[in-house]
Amino acid sequence: MFQWAFAKTMEKKLGCKVVFDNSSILSEDIKLNIFGLNPEYAGKKQIELSKSYLKSKKSKYYRILHSLPKYYPAQIIETNKFKYDKNFFQIKNKYYYKGYFQNYRYFSENKEQIKKDFTFPSIDSSDKKTKEILDRINATKNSVFVHIRKGDRLTTQCLTWTSEYYEKAFKYIKDKLGNVKFYIFAEDNIDEIKAKYGQIYDCEIISKIDEEWKLIYLMSKCTHAIISNDLKSWWAAFLMDRETESKDKIICAPAPYLDGQSDIIPDEWVKIEHKSDIKIAVLYIALGRYDVFWKGFYTTCEKYFLRDCQKTYFLFTDSSKIEYEKNLNVRKIYQKKLGWPYDSMLRFDMFLSQKSELEKYDYIFFFNANIEFVSEVGHEILPEDEKYEGLIVAHQPFLYNLGYDSYTYERNPKSTAYIPYGEGKYYVMGALNGGISNIYLKMCEELSRNIQIDLKNNIIALWHDESHLNKYIVDKNFLIMECNYLYPEGCILPEYME
Predict the structure, then answer these.
(1) Predicted local confidence at residue 193, as pLDDT
(2) Domains along the chain?
(3) 18: helix, coil or strand?
(4) In this structure, are residues 49 and 136 in contact, taking their beta carbons and an 8 Å threshold?
(5) pTM, to two decimals
(6) Is 359 a catalytic residue?
């Protein structure tokens, strides 16, 4: 459903035709033929051509100046699930889009058409159970659907079925509306739900709906909603057709919604905030004139970065007074200005001066002073120990996909940061890195030792700490964020990222 909404909105905004690859997309549980929609599918040759590499239209001089490849991939792949990327609607060439595009903002301007597209069929007269439930809902003035799903959501990084969320949502709606009836759609834990809510609220528990489209349809016929972090209840709330745009309509949603993000929740819905127990240490260096960036970093980090986690900022600065220094989540640490390049290159020594405190946190992240957040960053940035060896880094955008011999690694064999030609897979930025605390601190210790060895030998690696970071990860399996995840403001994006 999200893929259809994305595609139809793209057709409208760009005036282009969109066809679907039925071998790998449209895999959501609810099939489009339920709504009488007949998507046009691409042929095998069309798919192969769209996935091939395209030749850059830029001149050779332009490509060299901006470090752009001669050929670039024609595939546009959604790298941050549930996160809105405005650049998807700026591409006008023939491309192959791969993703689920599960974000309301992709089709918010086209929402009325999407609601019309997703018109459910009538319930068959032979389906007495569903029709009886529908009649009861229609006869209720203030009906509220409550979707409770436990199951596989226990394994995802999001707010799962908890008493805390539902108790807050029940109370919020009851306080706002007074006389309401709750229709609780549950897939399991029926006895527990009856015991918890049945004696407190006027409610009816509904289970064992035989088809998922009927579940969405029944929920959508209610007036208000308490949704779970499940896309079926999201669509039911979006499609509620009784005075759909009424200001009195209340939809409660857990925040964060999925994978630590809430971007999928429309602004007019009520977000029931939840704080996880995950503790994050944010490392930030503001020496000399770089303290001017601190305010923008702190405010945007608070607004967008891992909002559900408990963040503490370790602020290394020589400023006698700096904004937000009295905030409870800011630890101001005096750091003498060392001069260039040591203010940057010796960062790992600075971090290790706080090792005993940093060990108390689950994750540690370092950000360059001049970074600001422009959209939500959720749990997708948290590296899994088993899969990514506990570290996260980010592509350097202007060296992306050029090949290891074009990367600006340290080529001096006498340096501990040395990477010979023919080795290396990626080139990453020094502006963002992080990981599980003990693993990240271990990295800091090794990089600190290597930098000190180089200094004793009168060697400074080409890109200082960044060169040593690239050496450290050259043979490791790490979580790497795509280059449009962290990009210099005002710089020209390669055409395939625009």
Answers:
(1) 83
(2) 2-117 (no CATH), 128-273 (3.40.50.2000), 279-497 (3.90.550.10)
(3) coil
(4) no
(5) 0.61
(6) no
